[in-house]
Write a structure and sequence with these properties.
The chain is mainly alpha-helical and 255 residues long. Helices cover 76% and strands 0% of the residues.
Length: 255
């Protein structure tokens, strides 16, 4: 047995006692007796026990170290698996992000391309539509001009027709009421027959009934009672002075 500073106090004491007992026989210079043999046997047993205890301690330390190493290994494996899982998830997220970015990029490019195509089509349709509209407007302008001219001509025709109709109605009315008129040299229109009111009496006043003035009233009075054209023609001076009522006429006073 060799000395070691790592020995406990008990082991060191046993070491020194063993050393002393091993040296004492040689110092005494005699042979070992029975007591010495017994001591030697006890020392062997104690040594064996110490070795067993040491072996047990070492075995326990080995087992403990083995358990700790196993636990550390398990922990490392667990951490490695966790890192591997996180790495896979990160790679998966990265791939998904790249796919999303690529998809968005493609969609954006398709949208821009579609927008450019639509813009180009709108511009082409706008040019074509502008040309068509321009041609249509030119055509419509000509048609509008023609239509306006047609409406103007139609309006003129209608105006002339209404004028002729009014003149015809006036002529028919005069013909129906008075049998027609004939212009004299002094500008008056003597009537050929009596007033259609039929009031042939002294109270009848042609000037208030017919409104032709004194000269016409004289003619009416003359024709109404004689049924023949009057032979007396008033001069222009007499016609101009005939603004008085018909009851002031001399011929009516003579009837």
């Amino acid at each position: 047995m060799f000395f070691s500073p790592l020995m406990t106090g008990k082991d060191q004491t046993s070491f020194w006692w063993d050393s002393a007992w091993n040296v004492l026989p040689f110092l005494r210079g005699g042979r070992e007796g029975e007591g010495e043999k017994e001591n030697k046997r006890e020392r062997g047993e104690r040594k064996k026990e110490r070795e067993e205890r040491e072996e047990e301690r070492k075995r326990g330390e080995r087992e403990k170290g083995k358990r700790e190493r196993g636990e550390r290994k398990k922990q490392r494996e667990k951490e490695r698996r966790e890192r591997k899982r996180e790495k896979k998830e990160k790679e998966k997220r990265e791939k998904e992000r790249e796919k999303t970015e690529e998809r968005e990029k493609r969609e954006k490019e398709r949208g821009e391309k579609r927008e450019r195509r639509k813009t180009k089509e709108r511009e082409e349709r706008g040019r074509e539509g502008g040309e068509r509209r321009e041609r249509k407007e030119i055509k419509r302008g000509g048609e509008k001009r023609d239509e306006r001219k047609r409406r103007e001509r139609k309006s003129e025709r209608e105006k002339r027709g209404r004028k002729r109709e009014r003149e015809g109605e006036r002529e028919r009315e005069i013909e129906e009421r008075w049998g027609g008129i004939s212009e004299q040299q002094d500008g008056h229109f003597p009537l050929k027959r009596q007033c259609p009111n039929g009031r042939i009496d002294l109270q009848w006043r042609p000037s208030s009934c017919c409104g032709f003035g004194a000269a016409a009233a004289q003619s009416i009075v003359g024709t109404a009672f004689t049924s023949e054209p009057i032979s007396h023609q008033m001069s222009s001076a007499a016609a101009k002075a005939s603004n008085s009522r018909a009851d002031n006429l001399p011929c009516m006073l003579n009837i």
